[in-house]
Write a structure and sequence with these properties.
The chain is an alpha+beta fold and 101 residues long. The chain has one domain: Alpha-Beta Plaits, CATH 3.30.70.1530. It is 27% helix and 17% strand. The protein has two helices and five strands, in the order E-H-E-E-H-E-E. The protein has helices at residues 10-22, 58-71, and strands at 2-6, 27-30, 49-52, 78-79, 85-86. The strands form two sheets. A three-stranded antiparallel sheet has the order 1-3-2, covered by helices on one side. Strands 4-5 form a two-stranded antiparallel sheet. Helix 1 (10-22) crosses helix 2 (58-71). The termini are far apart.
């Protein structure tokens, strides 16, 4: 087993685990409920971690982490054709579901 990702951002963790599951890669999430130990342990040791179960899937999993990180990057606010202003992390309009140009 190899650790592939760690973060405090639950959205990112969920996004990556969804992509891993969709790709058929077995994984384990560790420290998911360790936040109660903050103060007793260093903060970075309490962050949730994603571990790839089979070492041979590591490279494929790393590519998924890279892809997921790019897709959730804040690319700056943008305005939809419907006129609604959206945050940079949205790939589609929250109001009309239109795709980002």
């Amino acid at each position: 087993m190899k650790k592939i990702y760690t973060s405090t951002e639950q959205f990112q963790l969920g996004h990556i685990t969804s992509m891993l599951k969709e790709s058929g890669i077995d994984y384990v999430v560790r420290n998911d409920f360790l936040s109660g130990a903050l103060g007793e342990l260093p903060p970075h040791e309490c962050w949730p971690e994603i571990w790839i179960t089979h070492d041979e899937d590591y490279d494929k999993g790393q590519a998924i982490v890279t892809e997921a990180s790019i897709s959730i990057t804040d690319m700056g606010k943008w305005q939809c054709e419907c006129g609604e202003e959206n945050e940079g992390t949205f790939g589609s309009c929250w109001k009309c579901s239109g795709d980002r140009p």
